[in-house]
Amino acid sequence: MKRRLLTGGTVLLVLSQFMLSTTGFGHGDVQPQAVDTEGLEVLPEEIAMENPYRVMGGEQYELARTIGASAYISNCARCHGLEAISGGIAPDLRMLEDGEFGDEWFMERVRKGYTQNGAYKMPPFENILNQEAMWAIRSYTETQPRPE
Ligand code: HEC
Fold it and tell me: How far lies 94's CA from each of 2, 19, 21, 97, 137, in Å?
């Protein structure tokens, strides 16, 4: 039964559960992880307005998606859900479309986080992830299948 169901999603699930159990952190306080973005084109200091790897396309976009997938698992999945399918704690990132909830909104939230009544509901990532890693995560979430 387990074996038959070993799809990509299951592997990720097992992996993240393993990480949670081995680090000893509970659901809410997994340490954010720096991300190795080697191979991705280095971006200028200024924050881009549009996902540069989508604009480049081809291999850069592919690599961004791969790096983004693991960066997402270690930094975002505990709140936003595996494969970017929200379990309800935080928004489903597959729903972020171009336009109002597009690239700029994504970067704003990821860099600054989100506070409510003075408490962080989402931590700011601007000192944890570089711009390359953030766009890599964007590349991953924006190419996950959207709900029907
Ligand atoms: C501790 C939990 C937590 C973590 C970790 C977290 N987020 Fe969030 N995130 C939230 C919550 C809660 C919101 C909803 C805030 C709001 O109402 O805009 C949110 C909102 C967002 C939004 C805006 C979504 C929308 O529909 O407006 C984006 C984009 C986002 N997060 C990206 C990320 C990314 C990328 C990561 C990993 C690098 C991440 N988040 C990590 C809790 C989290």
Answer: 27, 24, 27, 8, 11
Q: Are 40 and 67 in contact (CB under 8 A)?
A: yes
Spell out the per-residue pLDDT of the chain, length 148, in tens. 444 444 444 444 444 444 443 443 444 555 777 899 999 999 999 999 999 999 999 999 999 999 999 999 999 998 888 766 666 667 777 666 655 568 988 999 999 999 999 999 999 999 999 999 999 999 999 888 876 6
Residue 89, phi then psi, degrees to nearest 5: -70, -40
Contact residues of ligand 1, CB 6 A cut-off:
75-76, 78-80, 90-91, 93, 96, 101, 106, 109-110, 114, 121-122, 125, 137
Name residue 101's amino acid.
F
d(CA 39, CA 46): 20
In this structure, are residues 22 and 3 in contact, taking their beta carbons and an 8 Å threshold?
Answer: no
Fold of the domain built from segment(s) 49-148: Cytochrome Bc1 Complex; Chain D, domain 2 (1.10.760)
pTM (global) more than 0.70: yes
